[in-house]
Amino acid sequence: MLRIRRTPKDRAAFPTELPTSMHIPAGVSPEVYAAHRDILSVLMLRFMTSRLRAMYQAYDGDLTLCLVLGEIASRNTERHYDERRGYQASPIRGQKPALLPCNALSISDVTGIPRETVRRKLAKLVDLGWIEKTQDDMYVITDKIGTVFAAFDDSQTYDLMRTSDQIKNVLKGTPTL
After folding, report:
1. C-alpha 135: how far from its chain's center?
2. Exposed e or buried b for every residue in 124-160, given b needs 16+ CB within 10 A?
3. For labelling alongside 50, which of 86, 91, 95, 157 has CA 20 to 30 A away?
4. pLDDT of residue 91
5. Sequence spans of domains, the chain
6. Per-residue model confidence as pLDDT tens digits over 49-77
7. Minimal CA–CA distance to 26: which of 158, 170, 173, 171?
8. What one-character-per-residue DSSP string does the chain give?
9. Is the overall model pTM greater than 0.85, yes or no?
């Protein structure tokens, strides 16, 4: 079989490619999963649609702005939470871990958004006070987004936990929508 090396831009251009097999979480019976796949699909549809709607409203219809800010925040906070080690407290008590800055090119490469579009979104985010530009032409989030998005984040966490509980109930055989 011929393997094609895909770049982040290639992956961004084809976001609807589906996995070729089911990805079933550890500890879940493949039979139970397959039997309830339709309900699981409805739960995920409802969750994703409500989140997209909330983001659309929070960013005045500019989902690209949302994505750019999300990529910056994800990169900046890589040191805060590690998939293998969990939350990483700052080595200095009471001080936050240092942010890992990123630039327009890295955001463009990861998302597939044209670099000029990313630059315009970065300028808007700086104007809003949600990010700041470093001396090295890199970008980091500001403390302001923690205040601006606190209720939004709480709402997202609530919806995620509620959906997670619903999925667990479906997989246990006690579905409730």
Report:
1. 27
2. ebeeeebbeeeeeebbbbbeebeeebeeeeeebeeee
3. 86
4. 57
5. 34-172
6. 999 999 999 999 999 999 999 999 988 88
7. 171
8. -------HHHHHH-TTPPPSS--PPTTS-HHHHHHTHHHHHHHHHHHHHHHHHHHHHHTTT-HHHHHHHHHHHHHHTTTTEETTTEE---SSTT-PPPP--B-HHHHHHHH---HHHHHHHHHHHHHHTSEEE-TTS-EEE-THHHHHTHHHHHHHHHHHHHHHHHHHHHHHT----
9. no
Amino acid in position 35: A
Give the pLDDT score at 8. Answer: 53
Does residue 85 or residue 90 have the better pLDDT?
Answer: 85
CATH class (in words) of the domain with range 34-172:
mainly alpha
